[in-house]
Amino acid sequence: MADHNDFGKKAEDLAAGFLLKKGYKILVRNFRFQKAEIDIIAEKDDLIIIVEVKARSTDAFMLPQEAVTKSKIKSIVAAANHYLEEFNKNSEVRFDIISVLPDEKKNLVIDHITDAFEAFDAG
């Protein structure tokens, strides 16, 4: 596996652990629908939380969350809708982004952006 894939997997594992410590229940990881993938689907306070994990080795060019484009949002929303239908979930949905970046000492830092975008942002 390429180094960037290892880093992405490590970031997703860190994000899942972070959410668990915050009281979230992880329902599914790496949920796929057509060409789309949702990194983490969690539940907390009667909400379904769709989490996109973005990791970068540096923020020199852009912050990780800036890589969540309109087309990415559109595919996440489509996959989320499919998940809700497939598993008959009627809960309210929130879309979060967790960014993972190393600090000066190479420690990975998590930034959890709740309610990062709305389903209508995909339009």
UniProtKB/TrEMBL annotation:
It comes from the Bacteria. Keywords: Endonuclease, Hydrolase, Nuclease. The keyword Hydrolase applies. The keyword Coiled coil does not apply. HAMAP family: UPF0102. Belongs to the UPF0102 family. This is UPF0102 protein HNP36_002357.
